[in-house]
Specification:
The chain has 110 residues and is an all-alpha fold. 80% of the residues lie in helices and 0% in strands.
């Protein structure tokens, strides 16, 4: 019935959340171990041209945006993603618990 489908969807979403966390963690470890390799690969995937290659001698943008800014933005992005993933995980857990409790109270078991 519907509660069972809801439980399956919540479980699938939970597994997807774990997969995203694992992939994000792997990318974070890569960035911490070999930032230059991560940086170059990221930009080659994100951009289809070489306009991301900036020269501090000729490009004002790279002088206006110091490395600390990108580190700060990266930390904020990671924190925001982790926060949202935690909220979704809590919501999934609460939904599963509520559905299980409703099924148990109605005599359907789990």
């Amino acid at each position: 019935g519907r509660p069972r489908l809801y439980m399956l969807l919540c479980a699938a979403a939970g597994w997807g959340l774990w997969a995203m966390a694992a992939a994000g963690s792997a990318l974070l470890v890569w960035a911490l171990v070999n930032f230059e390799g991560f940086f170059i690969t990221f930009h080659r995937v994100a951009f289809h041209n070489d306009l991301w290659l900036l020269d501090p001698r000729t490009d004002l943008l790279i002088r206006l945006m110091p490395e600390e800014l990108f580190v700060h933005l990266g930390v904020k992005g990671i924190a925001a993603a982790a926060g949202w993933m935690a909220l979704v995980g809590i919501g999934l857990r609460l939904g599963l618990n509520r559905t299980r409790n409703d099924r148990t109270e109605n005599g359907h078991g789990i």
